[in-house]
C-alpha cells in the first residue's frame, strides 16, 4: 500500500487541472465576491437583494475550491482513506464529488441558456460556431449597485442574454454580415463590441454538443449530476435515519414492538415499490423534495434488518451492559456504543442504497415523473433525447454514460468494501 | 412436523392476506389524501351546485369515510374495481387483458435469467481460470449497473435505427393478422427479442453474482474436499453437490427479484411501447384514471405477495429445515 497513486494525488491532480483550465473563471468569481463585499459595506440593503441562490452557490464553490487543498494537506494524517490506492471506481466517485461541489467553476455556462435556435439546435459534440456580442448601452455614470449588477451578469451568465448573437459564419466589410442557416443579416459594426476598430468574433465551442433547444449539453450534464447526486444523498440520509432509529428500537426493546416493526417492514418489502412511488408522485406532484421523500421512505428496509440483528447481538456484549449500567440514555447508547461498532456494514449498505436511489430517480425522470425540465437530471435528459435518437446520439450517450459509470463505481466500491468486511468470501 | 408445516403455512397465508389488505387500505388513503377527487372530471364551474352534489352522491362521496373505506375494500376483494374512465370497460377486464402479456413476458424473462446465469456460473467454475473469472465478474457488475432504459434505448439505436435488424417498438407487424398461427407467434417473438434482452440483462448479472458467490463459498467447505478426495468426477461434484446447495440462496432472492422484474417490465414496456400492465399503469396514472390505477397497483401487489409465498413453498420443498426462515 506504500507505493502507487493514492487518492490524495488524484484529488490534487484534478484540482490542478481545474486551476489551469478555469483560472479566469476563478479569478472572475473572486473579484465578484470582493466587489460584493465592497457593495455590502456601502449599501447593505441593495447588496442583500442580490443574494440569490446561484450567487451564493458560486461563491461557496470558489471559497471551498481555494480551501480544499490546504485543508487536505493539514489533515492528511488524520484522514486515512486519502492514502488508499486509487482505482477506477474511487477515481470516478471523486470526479463526481468535484462536479457536485464545483459545478459553477467547471462549467461557467448557464444550463438553460438558449439563443438563435436555428444555429445552435442539435449541434454535434466538438462543434463550434461564431459568436458576436452587441455593445450594451453605457450610461454616463452608473451607481455602485448598477455596476455590480452588470459585473455579476457578465460573470454569472444569466439564462437569457439579448446581446449575444450566434452565427454560422460572419463576413466583415463596411458592415458586418452574419449568416444563420442561409439567412443573411446585416448589422452596423459600431454596435458590436470591437477592438481596434474590428468587431470581436469569438468562437463558441460546444464540447458535448447542444440539445434540441440549443442548450449546452456539457453544462446541463454538469448541473444534472448535481441534481441526481442531491436526490441520492437526500434519500439515503432519510433512509439512514429511519432505518437506524427503527432498527435500534426493534432490536433494543424486543418483544411486541419488535414483532410489530417486523411485520411493518415485511409489508413494505411486499409492496410493488415502483408502482407505489409512481402513484404517489403522480398524485401529489413531483418536485425534487417529494422525490427525495418518496425514495427515502421506500429504501430503509434492508438497513432496518441489518441494524436490528446487529443490535440484538451487541446487546449481550459486556461493554454494552456496562454502558447501560453507567446510565447512558438511549441516544447515547445508539450513537456512542452501537453506531461505531456497526458502521462498517451500514456503510456498505448505504453505498448500495445510494446507487439504487440514483437509478430509481433516473428511471422516474425517464418516465416523466422526475424533477422535470427546470432541473435537468440525467433521466430527464435521456427521456427528452429519445425523441431525437435518429439525429442526435449524443443527447442520450453522455447522460447514459454518466449514469452507468456512477452506478458501476458505487456498486463496485460497495462490493470491495463488502469483501473487506466479509472474510468468508475471500479466497 | 407435518402439523408444524401446515401451521406455519397457514400463518404465512394469513400474513399475506393481511399484507394485501394493508396495501388496499394504503391505496385508499393516498387516493383520498391526494388533491382533487374523481368528480373533478365531471364537474365544471358552469354546472349548478345541485348537479355537482348529485354527481358527488353518485360517487358516494357524501357518505362517511369509514363506510366508503369498507365498501372499497369489499369491492376490491370481490374483484369489482369499477369502470375505467378511458376504456369504458370494467377495470378487471382491462387489467386482465394487459396483465396476461406482462405475465408471459416476465416469465420468459425469468426463465431466461435463471438458466443463463446458472449456465454462466457453471461454465466459469469449470474453466478454473482466474482471469476469466475476474473478467466475467467485472462484466456482470458493469451490466448490472446499466439502467434498463439506457440499455433499451442503446439497443434501439444500434439494432433498429442503424442496422435495421429489429423493430423499434410494438408487438405485432402490420401484416400480423394475415399470418398463420405459427408465423404469428414467431412474429411476436421476433418483436420481443430486444425487450427481452433489456429486461433480463440486469437480472442475469444479479443472479450470476449470487450463485457464483455461494458456489465459491460451498466449494471451500470440507464435504466437497471429502468428495474430491474419494475420487468423484469433477462434473458430478459440480452438478450434484455444489449446484443444489448453491441454488438455495437464489430462491430467497428470486421472490424479491420477481418484484424487480415487475418494476423492470414497467420501464421496458414504456421504452418499446408494448401492451403490458406497466405501461397501462403509467398511462392510467398520468391520465388520472383512478379505478384503473387501483386495479394495476392492486394486481402488481397481489402478484408479488403470491410470488413470495410460492418462493417460500419451493424453499420448503427443497429443504425442510428452512421452515424457521419463513416466519422470521
What does this structure look like?
The complex is a heterodimer of chains A (427) and B (328). Chain A starts with 6 loop residues before the first helix and ends in a 6-residue tail after the last helix. In chain A, a hairpin with a 2-residue loop joins strand 6 and strand 7 (198-199). In chain A, the strands form three sheets. A three-stranded antiparallel sheet of chain A has the order 2-1-8, with no helix packed on it. A three-stranded antiparallel sheet of chain A has the order 3-4-5, with no helix packed on it. In chain A, strands 6-7 form a two-stranded antiparallel ribbon. With 427 residues, chain A is mainly alpha-helical. Chain A has helices at residues 7-21, 23-42, 44-49, 53-74, 88-106, 117-120, 144-156, 217-253, 255-270, 273-284, 288-297, 301-315, 318-326, 330-366, 378-385, 394-421; strands at residues 127-133, 164-167, 169-172, 176-180, 183-187, 194-195, 198-199, 202-206. Chain B has 328 residues and is mainly alpha-helical. Helices cover 77% and strands 0% of the residues of chain B. Chain B has helices spanning 2-33, 49-58, 65-78, 91-127, 130-144, 148-162, 181-219, 222-229, 234-271, 277-286, 290-318, 323-326. In chain B, helix 1 packs across helix 3 and helix 7 crosses helix 9. At the A-B interface, helix 9, helix 10, helix 14, helix 15 and helix 16 of A face helix 1, helix 5, helix 6, helix 7 and helix 9 of B.
Amino acid at each position: 500500500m506504500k507505493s502507487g497513486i493514492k487518492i490524495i494525488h488524484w484529488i490534487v491532480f484534478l484540482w490542478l487541472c481545474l486551476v489551469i483550465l478555469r483560472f479566469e473563471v476563478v479569478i472572475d468569481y473572486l473579484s465578484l465576491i470582493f466587489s460584493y463585499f465592497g457593495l455590502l459595506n456601502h449599501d447593505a440593503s441593495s447588496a442583500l437583494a442580490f443574494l440569490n441562490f446561484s450567487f451564493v452557490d458560486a461563491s461557496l464553490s470558489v471559497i471551498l475550491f481555494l480551501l480544499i487543498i490546504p485543508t487536505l494537506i493539514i489533515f492528511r494524517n488524520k484522514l486515512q482513506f486519502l492514502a488508499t490506492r486509487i482505482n477506477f471506481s474511487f477515481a470516478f466517485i471523486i470526479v463526481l464529488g468535484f462536479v457536485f461541489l464545483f459545478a459553477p467553476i467547471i462549467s461557467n455556462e448557464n444550463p438553460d441558456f438558449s439563443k438563435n435556435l436555428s444555429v445552435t439546435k442539435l449541434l454535434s459534440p466538438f462543434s463550434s460556431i461564431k459568436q458576436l456580442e452587441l455593445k450594451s448601452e453605457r450610461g454616463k455614470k452608473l451607481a455602485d449597485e448598477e455596476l455590480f449588477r452588470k459585473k455579476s451578469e457578465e460573470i454569472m451568465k444569466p439564462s437569457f442574454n439579448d446581446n449575444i448573437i450566434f452565427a454560422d459564419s460572419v463576413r466583415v466589410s463596411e458592415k458586418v454580415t452574419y449568416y444563420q442557416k442561409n439567412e443573411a443579416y446585416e448589422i452596423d459594426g459600431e454596435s458590436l463590441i470591437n477592438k481596434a476598430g474590428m468587431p470581436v468574433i469569438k468562437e463558441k465551442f460546444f464540447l458535448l454538443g447542444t440539445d434540441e433547444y440549443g442548450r449546452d449539453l456539457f453544462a446541463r450534464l454538469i448541473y444534472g449530476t448535481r441534481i441526481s447526486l442531491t436526490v441520492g444523498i437526500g434519500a439515503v440520509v432519510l433512509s439512514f435515519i429511519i432505518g437506524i432509529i427503527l432498527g435500534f428500537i426493534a432490536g433494543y426493546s424486543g418483544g411486541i414492538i419488535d414483532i410489530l416493526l417486523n411485520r411493518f417492514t415485511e409489508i413494505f418489502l411486499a409492496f410493488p415499490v415502483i408502482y407505489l412511488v409512481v402513484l404517489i408522485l403522480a398524485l401529489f406532484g413531483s418536485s425534487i423534495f417529494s422525490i427525495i421523500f418518496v425514495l427515502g421512505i421506500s429504501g430503509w428496509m434492508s438497513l432496518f434488518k441489518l441494524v436490528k440483528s446487529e443490535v440484538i447481538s451487541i446487546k449481550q456484549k459486556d461493554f454494552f451492559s456496562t454502558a447501560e449500567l453507567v446510565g447512558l440514555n438511549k441516544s447515547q447508547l445508539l450513537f456512542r456504543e452501537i453506531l461505531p461498532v456497526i458502521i462498517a456494514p451500514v456503510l456498505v449498505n448505504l453505498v448500495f442504497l445510494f446507487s439504487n436511489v440514483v437509478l430509481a430517480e433516473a428511471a422516474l425522470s425517464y418516465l416523466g415523473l422526475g424533477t422535470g425540465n427546470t432541473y435537468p437530471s440525467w433521466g430527464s435528459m435521456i427521456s427528452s433525447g429519445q425523441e431525437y435518437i435518429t439525429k442526435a446520439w449524443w443527447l442520450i450517450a453522455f447522460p447514459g454514460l454518466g449514469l452507468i459509470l456512477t452506478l458501476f463505481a458505487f456498486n463496485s466500491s460497495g462490493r470491495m468494501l463488502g469483501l473487506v468486511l466479509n472474510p468468508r468470501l475471500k479466497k | 412436523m407435518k402439523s408444524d408445516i401446515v401451521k406455519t403455512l397457514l400463518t404465512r397465508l394469513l400474513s399475506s392476506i393481511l399484507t394485501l389488505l394493508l396495501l388496499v387500505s394504503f391505496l385508499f388513503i393516498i387516493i383520498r389524501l391526494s388533491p382533487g377527487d374523481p368528480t373533478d372530471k365531471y364537474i365544471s364551474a358552469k354546472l349548478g351546485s345541485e348537479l355537482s352534489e348529485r354527481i358527488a352522491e353518485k360517487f358516494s362521496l357524501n357518505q362517511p369515510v369509514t363506510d366508503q373505506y369498507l365498501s372499497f375494500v369489499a369491492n376490491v376483494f370481490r374483484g369489482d374495481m369499477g369502470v375505467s374512465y378511458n376504456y369504458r370497460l370494467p377495470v378487471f377486464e382491462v387489467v386482465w387483458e394487459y396483465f396476461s402479456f406482462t405475465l408471459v413476458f416476465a416469465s420468459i424473462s425469468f426463465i431466461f435469467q435463471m438458466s443463463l446465469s446458472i449456465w454462466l456460473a457453471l461454465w466459469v467454475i469449470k474453466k478454473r481460470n482466474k482471469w476469466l473469472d475476474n473478467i466475467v465478474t467485472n462484466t456482470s457488475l458493469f451490466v448490472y449497473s446499466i439502467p434498463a432504459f439506457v440499455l433499451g434505448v442503446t439497443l434501439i439505436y444500434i439494432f433498429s435505427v442503424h442496422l435495421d435488424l429489429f423493430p423499434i417498438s410494438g408487438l405485432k407487424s402490420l401484416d400480423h393478422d394475415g399470418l398463420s398461427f405459427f408465423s404469428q407467434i414467431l412474429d411476436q417473438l421476433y418483436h420481443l427479442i430486444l425487450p427481452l434482452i433489456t429486461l433480463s440483462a440486469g437480472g442475469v448479472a444479479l443472479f450470476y453474482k449470487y450463485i457464483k458467490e455461494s458456489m465459491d463459498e460451498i466449494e471451500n467447505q470440507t464435504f466437497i474436499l471429502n468428495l474430491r478426495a474419494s475420487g468423484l468426477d469433477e462434473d458430478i461434484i459440480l452438478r450434484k453437490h455444489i449446484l443444489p446447495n448453491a441454488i438455495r440462496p437464489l430462491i430467497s432472492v428470486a421472490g424479491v427479484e420477481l418484484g424487480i422484474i415487475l418494476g423492470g417490465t414497467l420501464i421496458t414496456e414504456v421504452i418499446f411501447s408494448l401492451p403490458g400492465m406497466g405501461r397501462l399503469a403509467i398511462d392510467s396514472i398520468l391520465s388520472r384514471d383512478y379505478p384503473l390505477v387501483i386495479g394495476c397497483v392492486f394486481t402488481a401487489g397481489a402478484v408479488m405477495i403470491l410470488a413470495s409465498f410460492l418462493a417460500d413453498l419451493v424453499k420448503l420443498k427443497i429443504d425442510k429445515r428452512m421452515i424457521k426462515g419463513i416466519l422470521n
